[in-house]
Amino acid sequence: MLTKRSQIVCLVLLLGLSALLDAFVALRMSATPDEARHVQYGALVLQLRPDRLNAGRYDSQMPVSALNAVPGVVASYLERRHLFPRLSAFLSRFRAARFPTILATLALSLMVYLWAYDLYGAEAALVACLLSIFSPNLIAHGTLATTDMYHALGVVGSLYFVRRFLLQPTLVHALLGGFTLSLAQITKPFALFLYGVVGVAIALAIFRRSPLGSLTPRRLLAFAAIAAASFVITINVVYSFDRTFTPVGSYRFESSLFARFQQIPVLRQVPVPLPYPFLQGLDMTRHNEKNGQSFGNVYLLGQLRDATDETFHGFKSYYAVAIFFKEPVALQILFLCGLFWIWKNRSIADFLFGEGLLLAAAAILVFWLSFFDRAQIGIRHILPALAIETVIAGAAFSNFSLKPLAKKAFLSLLVLWLVVSVASYYPQMIPYMNEWVRDRRLSYKILADSNLYWGQDDALVQEFIRKNPAVFLDPPVPVPGRILVDANRLTGVDRWNPSETYLERYRPVAQVGYAHFLFVVPAKDITSSPP
User: Fold this and answer.
1) How far apart are the first and last CA of the chain?
2) Could you tell me if residue 479 is inside a domain?
3) CA distance 391 to 117
């Protein structure tokens, strides 16, 4: 059995390892297209100018990106005063903006540990933390200046503190639960779904026959009031109270849904106790998701769909396929083992206020984005569900030291398989595909977009072209010779550039950065079929 001191030492070592792995990835990756806009909006928030039409158009960007803008602000301050020039030079680089996200990634690993510790004990908690640290998709998007990792932390962290309140309904726990729920709302527009999950949990706590100790209806209602107050206060503070109490009729909505809501006569004069940019962001996100103008075509298993086509309602199996091919096989098996342990060892009451909270949140997130969202552009949108997967997988390691030798060996081999699989791609984590993809050169036939290419390997490509000047990079017309093309041009996802459909008849001979594919086109094919 682990002592308290050894647990802390192991946890610190794991978090230290995570920091090193993530920092190396962040320093190696080229800038992705979305990062600059997130940091720019974060800078506007710091300047108390959170309107989404200030200096551009910011629809899905969120106030939490102010954290990523801090290094640039500090760099400007130091430069103006001619202080610490080397530190100022480093902080002014775009990669420095990624380090606040890395801190959020460490915080998520800590929350995974705390969840698993409460549910399954110290041994399982350390393994769950290890699984989160080596989760390729958590590494990939926990090292970028975007909001996906913050969203995962907001979901997992807020549900942890809500559960603490449900088990021990003190004022402190109520304040922590309500406050962390409100903080989650500044990470992604869809984080509002958390209030639905918590509302169902509260309803179950009120109406179930066996009460949880001192968890009375009065205290649950008090928690609901605290959560509502925290939401209003937090949203107003982060958006600088920008035009709070603007009447509904004075908003300039873009989406048909919000426009219809605005036409209800009884609501037009009602003042909204929230800042203008909050509803503005929900409206713009809804509008852009419907018209598809802000993202490329949607691609899955060789099928390409135009996101601007109103008859296209998304691939229902998109995220199921993404999980199947992009989550490590070993982690998927451990998740199933964890579910089996829960089924064998959990009572209904314990499950509802334990794993039930996490699994409900993950299920709602995946279900909604699969069936009601057309912006299917990457597994990163369900990052909270992938973090929850590591917590549930930790259940398989409950009382690990007391398990039979065969079970210990089996579970240990799965962890080793996970580490080796991730290491085979490291530090290129965005294009990670598991062993179900037998030939990595054909990964573009399964998924594309930010699942595979998001600009992260541009530096590697430029270095490759420098060493191989005879290779054509994204030629504007079909040419013979060695052709290097990224996954989004190859599949047609990137509708702003010409698709390389003439390469469909060939098989890639190599990869650069796992997201650019090298083809050899015979001269006779081009001369016999001129462009």
Assistant:
1) 70
2) yes
3) 9
